Structures are given as structure tokens and as C-alpha cells.
Amino acid sequence: MLQLIASSNFLTVNMAIAKQVGNDAAILLAELASSQVYFDKHEMLTDGMFFETVEQIEDHTNLTKYQQAKAVKKLEEVGVLKTRMRGIPAKRYFLVNGEKILELVDRKKSKNLTTVGQKTLPQEVKKLDRNNKRETIKENNNINNNIVSQSNMSEPVQEKVLDFLAYREEIKKPYKSERSIKSLVTQIEKQEQAIGSIAVIRVIDTSMQNGWQGLFWDKAPKPEVSKSVQHHLDIESWGKQFEQ
After folding, report:
1. Cβ–Cβ < 8 Å for 206, 219
2. pLDDT tens digits for 123-139?
3. Alpha-carbon torsion (6, 70, 171, 180), positive or negative
4. What is this structure's pTM?
5. Domain that holds residue 193
């Protein structure tokens, strides 16, 4: 069923569903179904669910954050969509329920899907001709996820690094090769060992908040030294002075 309402070149909207839940919800359902098929095909689902940002959905469908929220609520009400907050920071994951979709439309109608493009619904889907860009972004995300997940970084830092890579995409300054991404990951792994996870996350946040392309480790907060370690250092320093 998910294959029926997903497509690589256009969003395919079932008109029977659109009549029941509205155009916005039908368009969102088509987008999420397409994403779920993609992530499933590439074995990237997490407990059967996938993650897609509000910004990505808006770029693919032209639905605003407000329109998305209403559409998600409607799809949840009819049972064809489940959402769950996961990770640190919390992100929204989706699961499209194919069985529930079949309950909305009979099998005969589900075969007569209407392809909706810019000419028929310019207000709702005027950005759907960007699918080539969309596929490129998804392929890049796949590469990024694999490299980051195989690193020795802690999970919170991995999440933040993925945010930073997505940020670089947004400002049109993506890393152009796997080697450059691996080099970044290696750099961050060393910094996490040296200054700790919290400091690394702060450095990345600072760069994104200020619109910087790079990470400036000289601006990282210094790691705290425990009282016992500081006491040991003080005694060691005093001993050296006494010897002199």
C-alpha cells in the first residue's frame, strides 16, 4: 500500500483520501509514505519509524509548519499516522500505517491514484519539481548517518553533528566528500575526549547560531577539574617549589 502512494518523481495523492482528510493531509501523507518507503529500502528505519524535519517537509510539499501540524493531527485522528518523540534533543519520528489506509479506501479505488503536479494544485505543491534535489539530499543524509553512526562519539554528540551537517546543507555550504566528513568526525571525536560532550555541543551550537561555517574550538569552555584532582595538582606544584 505504501508503494502505491509513493513515487520518486511526483507526489501521488489518492483523491478518495483527499476527500476524507483534505488536500493538505493527503499531500503530507503522500510525502511521508514516500519517505518511509525510501528509508525502509535503505534499511534506515528506527523501530520501523523515520525522521523528517518540518523544514524538509515544507521544502518537498510547500506545506507550512502550521499546515503540517493540522495535517498531522488529522492523519493521527483517522489512524493512518503515528508520531513519537525520540533522541536528545527530541525529534519527531513518523510511522505510516498501510493497513489503516486500506480502511479509508477500497482496493479498487486505491489503484486509481491521481498524480497531482504543479498545474493542478499550484498552491499546495508548487515545489514538487525539486525531487532531483530531494533525492540528492536523502543520499547525502544516508552517507552522513552511516559515517556518524560508526564513529566513537557519544549519541548526543552524534545527533548534534548530524544537525551541523544539515545546517551546512541549508546554508549552501555542504561538505563535498566523504573524506571531508570523516575528517570532521575524527576532529570532533578528539575534541570530545579532550573537553567533553557538553563543551563540544556548545561549540557546534555556537557556530550554527552565529552562521559560521566552521567549528572554533578556542571558544570551547574549559573542562572542569574536580576538587580532588585540583588538590593533587596544588600539592604537586607546591612540592616542585619546595624542591627548588
Report:
1. yes
2. 444 444 444 455 555 55
3. negative
4. 0.43
5. 151-224
